[in-house]
């Protein structure tokens, strides 16, 4: 990959952004921040102005914050940017030769630069009988509808023990809902958490009354006359649900799969997302389960850029293509893509950072944890509450590569410096809560 030639787009140039989520909203704002005076058209399928999603599984789902709290910019600030915002409109096709996009209202919009911020959609359950009965959580509308279904003492089954599933579990428990989470892997958040951190998260949920079933899945379901759903679960490890939680054991064989029935009023699938890369693929832009971009956010077409959840990053220091599904990445890569579209970009090589809030505990993951050859813990890895703090440090050759902090926001900021300084650290000092991390930086 080579450094792009600086291009100065003239004041009558047209930039189209598809997708008005976090990445698209920040891309549009940045174009104006960078003094681009041409036409910016932002097309979003959802009716809402650019918005972020983290509150949708937290405060908005709990009903303590309105949907408008997710909007990225105050409406007056947004209006002052003079952006041709086409809300509630879907782009149906990209014509790269004519440099136009076709909208679902029959109109076409021309572009000199195109930025794809189409994000992803929630993966749904494919079990017969469950397509309609289960729900997912991705959009503002999903969050509002699910909130109305989470009544005290109602029974919620969450399929998938990843971040969305666990945040829904935490919010629902706080609303007095009876919550079971079933996860196929032998641990929670298997894609992003090492086992020891996942165990601590599981203990937090168990302390707060969430029933967690690991190594299991849904195999069948039927809707009952009262609207509830009876689901059949297959659990392959020793963690059988207790009798109190399940209505009956249908089939069992010691040490192998047991099939259990559970009745729920609501089923939420938290089983990941599918990147919305179909538009790019149909237009012949290179994709691999997402739109492929280099560190300048460029796709295989040099006048088309991509950012956020839809982008698969390669080039630069990356040893293999990767996607970062996080709030920070959507914002920072949206900003980077806008600058690159103007020819003013620098390589986008973020240090991965993700956060979550569950039961009053803030979890943050910084850097990489999966290539470590040693981990050190500061604090008790058995138990976490809103009053305590635990940090896991992941090192390779004595050099800090990543950190997972539970209620450790300030230390995470220092840890960023420790990761960046890339020197061999004193592991005894890392493990000792009475040694300030700042003294190591
Ligand atoms: C419920 C929830 C909670 C989360 N919580 C956290 C958290 O606590 N911490 C964290 O770091 N991350 C969190 N995330 C992840 C983070 O929100 C996402 O990574 C981020 O929203 C991605 O932004 P995006 O702009 O790339 O995509 P999206 O937010 O998916 O936006 C893409 C937009 O493009 C639109 N679109 C798609 N195709 C078209 C088309 N053809 N025409 C027009 N419009 C189109 C879509 O309708 C959508 O509005 C959470 C995500 C969810 C769903």
From TrEMBL:
Which cofactors, by name? FAD
Answer yes or no on keyword Cell cycle.
Answer: no
Q: Which Gene3D superfamilies match?
A: 3.30.390.30, FAD/NAD(P)-binding domain (3.50.50.60)
| InterPro entries, A to Z | FAD-oxidoreductase/Apoptosis, FAD/NAD-bd_sf, FAD/NAD-binding_dom, FAD/NAD-linked_Rdtase_dimer_sf, Reductase_C
Per UniProt, which keywords does this protein have?
Answer: Dioxygenase, FAD, Flavoprotein, Oxidoreductase
Q: Does the keyword Lipid metabolism apply?
A: no
Q: Which GO terms describe its molecular function?
A: dioxygenase activity; oxidoreductase activity, acting on NAD(P)H
Which Gene Ontology terms of cellular component type are present? Answer: cytoplasm
Lineage: superkingdom: Bacteria
Where do the Reductase C-terminal domain residues begin and end? 353-441
Pfam families, from UniProt? Pyr_redox_2, Reductase_C
Residue ranges of domain FAD/NAD(P)-binding in the record: 14-334
Q: What is this protein called?
A: 3-phenylpropionate/trans-cinnamate dioxygenase ferredoxin reductase subunit
Annotated source species? Paralcaligenes ureilyticus
Organism classification = Bacteria, Pseudomonadati, Pseudomonadota, Betaproteobacteria, Burkholderiales
């Amino acid at each position: 990959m080579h450094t792009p030639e600086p291009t100065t787009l003239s004041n009558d140039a047209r930039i189209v952004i598809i997708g008005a989520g976090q990445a698209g909203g920040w891309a549009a704002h940045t174009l104006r921040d960078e003094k681009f005076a041409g036409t910016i058209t932002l097309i979003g399928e959802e009716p809402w102005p650019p918005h972020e999603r983290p509150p949708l599984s937290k405060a908005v789902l709990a009903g303590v914050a309105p949907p408008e709290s997710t909007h990225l910019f105050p409406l007056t600030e947004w209006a002052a940017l003079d952006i041709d915002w086409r809300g509630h409109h879907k782009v149906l096709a990209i014509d790269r030769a004519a440099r136009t996009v076709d909208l679902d209202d029959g109109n076409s919009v021309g572009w000199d630069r195109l930025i794809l911020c189409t994000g992803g959609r929630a993966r749904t359950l494919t079990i017969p009988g469950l397509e309609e009965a289960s729900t997912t959580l991705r959009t503002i509308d999903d969050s509002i509808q699910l909130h109305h279904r989470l009544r005290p003492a109602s029974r919620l089954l969450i399929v998938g023990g990843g971040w969305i599933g666990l945040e829904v579990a935490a919010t629902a428990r706080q609303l007095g809902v009876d919550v079971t989470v079933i996860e196929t892997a032998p641990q929670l958040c298997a894609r992003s958490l090492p086992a020891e951190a996942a165990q601590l998260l599981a203990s937090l949920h168990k302390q707060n009354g969430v029933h967690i079933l690991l190594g299991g899945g849904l195999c069948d379901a039927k809707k009952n006359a009262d609207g509830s759903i009876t689901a059949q679960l297959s659990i392959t490890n020793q963690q059988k649900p207790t009798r109190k939680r399940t209505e009956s054991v249908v089939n069992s064989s010691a040490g192998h799969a047991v099939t259990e029935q559970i009745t729920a009023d609501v089923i939420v699938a938290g089983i990941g997302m599918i990147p919305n890369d179909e538009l790019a693929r149909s237009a012949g832009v290179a994709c691999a389960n997402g739109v492929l971009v280099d560190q300048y956010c460029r796709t295989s077409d040099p006048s088309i850029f991509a950012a956020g959840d839809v982008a698969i990053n390669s080039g630069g220091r990356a040893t293999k293509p990767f996607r970062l599904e996080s709030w920070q990445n959507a914002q920072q890569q949206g900003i980077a893509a806008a600058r690159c579209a103007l020819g003013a970009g620098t390589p986008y090589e973020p240090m991965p950072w993700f956060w979550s809030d569950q039961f009053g505990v803030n979890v943050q993951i910084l850097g990489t944890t999966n290539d470590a050859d040693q981990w050190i813990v500061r604090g008790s890895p058995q138990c976490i509450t809103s009053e305590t703090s635990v940090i896991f440090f992941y090192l390779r050759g004595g050099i800090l590569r990543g950190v997972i902090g539970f209620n450790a926001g300030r230390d995470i900021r220092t840890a960023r410096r420790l990761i960046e300084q890339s020197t061999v650290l004193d592991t005894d000092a890392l493990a000792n809560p009475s040694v300030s991390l700042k003294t190591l930086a």
